[in-house]
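Interim report to the steering committee. The following record documents the input for NAD(P)H-binding protein (296 residues).
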Amino acid sequence: MSNSNDSSTILVAGATGFLGREICRQLTAENMRVKGFVRATSDANKVAHLKELGVETIEGDLKNKQSLVNALKGVSAIISTVSSTLSRQEGDSIQTVDDEGQTNLIDAAIHAGINQFIFISFCAMAGEWPLQTAKRKVERHLAKSGLNYTIFQPTCFMEVWLGPALGFDYPNAKATIYGEGNNKVSWIAIKDVAAFAVNSLHNPLANNKIIELGGPQALSPLEAVHIFEASIGKKFELQFVPEEAIKVQKAAAQDPLSESFAGLMLGVANGSEIDMTEALKISPIKLTSVSDYVKS
C-alpha cells in the first residue's frame, strides 16, 4: 500500500464512472496524487466533482493513442475501470473500448515504462458473449505484457444489480428476478472493489495475480429480497424473467451490447459464488454485506 510520502501519480481510467469516482475518492483520501482520465464529452458535474476531490483531470480517449501518450506522462501506475456498457459516446462499442481501447492503454503503458497496471474486469460467467470475450482477451494481453499487473474479477455490484436501474426497485418494493431467483450470488459493494484496487498498489502480494472478488455472503436474489422486505417492512412485488426467455433474448440480440446484457442476466440467474479466502489474505478489507447496503 502506498503512503502520503510517495510522490508517484496514479492514473485512473474511467474516472467519471461509479467505480472510477470511488477509486479517486479513496486515493485522494490517502493523500495520493491522482490523474483522472476523462473525455471531452464527460459529464461536467462529474469532472467538477473529481477536481473538488483534488484529482488532476486530463482529457483523452482510449481510442486515441496519442492522447494516451500525453496522459501517461509522470504516471507510475494505472487503474483501469473503463467499459462501454453504461456510458457510451459516438464510436464507442465493446470492440472499440473494452477490447481495442483497453489494449491501446496496455500498449501505451508498456511504451511509457509504467510500473503497475490494475485492471478491473469481472468474474467468469457461463456462455460466450462479446463483453466477456473482450475482457478475457484484454486479461491475456495484460498477463503477457511484462507489466506488473493485478486483474480483479468482481462478481455483481450490489448497487447495480440490487438497484432500480436494473429492475430492483426497492424504493417502490418491486423487483425483477432473473431466472428462478434461487442461485446464490456473492454481491459486492462498489466501495469494496475500489478498496481492493487501491490496496493492491505497491502491495507485493497482489503482483501478477488474477483475483476474484465477492462480498462476505452469497445470497440468492430471493434471499436479498427478504432482507429488503424485513428492513422496509413491506412485501415486494416480484416479476420473474424465466431463464429460457433470457436465452431467447440473447440469441435474438441485434448488437453485441444487447447480447452481453443478456449474458450478464444469465450469469445472475445461474449464480456467482466467490470464495474470498485468498483475496482477503492479500488485502484484509472489511466487506460490506447486503444488510449493510440496505441500511446505508
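Strands lie at 9-13, 33-38, 56-59, 75-80, 116-120, 148-154, 168-169, 174-178, 209-213, 237-241. The committee is asked to note this result when reviewing the revised timeline.
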